[in-house]
Amino acid sequence: MSKNRNTPGGSQRRKRIKRALARRDGACCWYCAGDFGPELEGATVDHLIPHTLLRTWMLAALVLACEPCNRAKADRLPQEVLRPRFAPGLVPVGADAAA
Ligand SMILES: [Zn+2]
Hints:
2 strands; disordered N terminus; globular; single chain; 27% helix; alpha+beta; binds zinc ion
């Protein structure tokens, strides 16, 4: 195991993670839907579940975010900063009457 846990694999690995996230979610910011384009210009990897709570680089815990959104979200949980257009897909606990 490498000691360098903060940036596993460096920029090459990070680039692969970004491409995998773009394939899954589209090449846009998960929060504001800003388009990164095919080269993922300005895309950062954001820990949907704050890294301080769940120390993992599993794709399931990661999303693409633009720099301003990543900074704005910081260590807050995703439901605190969810973009409105994503909200219809999320049913809050106890709100299953709509189903
Ligand atoms: Zn954004």
